[in-house]
Amino acid sequence: MHLSRLKLRDFRNYVRLDAEFGPGCHVLLGNNAQGKTNILEAIYLLATLRSFRGCGGAQMIRQGAKGYFVGGSVEGQGVSEIKAYWSPKERKLSLNERPIRKLADYFGVLRAVVFCSEDLALVKGPAQGRRRFLDLLLAQTIPGYLPLLMRYAEALRSRNALLKQPVVDLVELDGFTQELVLAGESLITARQDFVPALAPRVQSAFRRIAVESDELALHYQPSVTGDFAVALSQSRARERALKTTVVGPHRDDLTLLVNDRAAAPYTSEGQKRTLAIALKLAQAEHLAAVYGTPPLLLIDDVMGELDTRRRSAFLPLLQQSFRAGGQVFMTCTEENWPRQLSCELLRWKVDKGHLAQWSE
Ligand SMILES: Nc1ncnc2c1ncn2[C@@H]1O[C@H](COP(=O)(O)OP(=O)(O)OP(=O)(O)O)[C@@H](O)[C@H]1O
Ligand SMILES: [Mg+2]
Fold first, then answer.
1. How far, in Å, from the CA of 335 to the mean position of ligand 2?
2. Which of 63, 109, 210, 253 sits in a 20 to 30 Å window from 17, CA-based?
3. What would be the CATH architecture of the domain defined by 127-290?
4. Domains of the chain by residue range
5. Residues with Cβ < 8 Å from 18, sequence gap 6 or more?
6. Which residue's CA lies nearest to atom 11 of ligand 1?
């Protein structure tokens, strides 16, 4: 699978960009603030309809413009044309000229894994980031997971809106509770089954890149351990007081332990970074294993931050990607990727919102 064409209009600092890419390793070179990360952001947006910077649509519209357009052609088994337009007033998403109404029908056209500085929040930040990481990978690999997640989110929204009313209609609350329990129990089961399968991949990646021989453990930490319906009824007083649903999969976490201690408060910055990269390497390796072809790898400036050992941890993944005809986009301010990278690098110059093939 590879992205053969990318078209941007009024996206970030790009007025217009039309680029064609083959498979292989594309290196986007340029000074700071020229638009390197913006290109990765646009590609990731085509894959997940989200920014990896955690910002909303409005921030991605070029200053002074009304809306942004991001389009792309994905070549895998056949060619898929994706078009996404976003403005505060209008959102359009189409696949092969057909409007997409259900997100689940779209998801998976382009599979991508991003390595970026925001990944550190997976270790340092709140549970939400780790839940998103889990949900994305589950949605990328298990058909039916995304619709389930959306069903749960919808029931949760309605239930929370009701809990905010001055007088709560108990019959209505019961209806939303039933829907929440149905979707929620399936989410819990899917996560429970998946984390033990993912853990060895993360541990193996961590072992390859960690400097010390630290032991990593990864556990699913559900908000509800027994019966979800019972837990909800037991939390009635608290949810009435707080006017929101206080238990359920929307409060789940993924516990990260290094040498049996919680990772966030006890590890160094370097260990945190190693752990964050291990999670992402595991995501990429899992996708490659499930689909038999590697996902697109979007590597944002990560090479510059890493020592030689951790840089070389990327090599097997990159090499596997080349062998399988995959595609990698790497951004750098200077040529600082591993020397052992034996493949042909396709160099691009990014300068003030313009992308051009590199010429010496
Ligand atoms: N909505 C927007 N409209 C116009 N310009 C924007 C918008 N959002 C960001 N920019 C501009 O895009 C540029 C940053 O682009 P980007 O983050 O891709 O830089 P970069 O090349 O990755 O730099 P670095 O090497 O520092 O990471 C900045 O000049 C910023 O002002
Ligand atoms: Mg950048």
1. 14
2. 109
3. Up-down Bundle (1.20)
4. 127-290
5. 5, 6, 7
6. 13
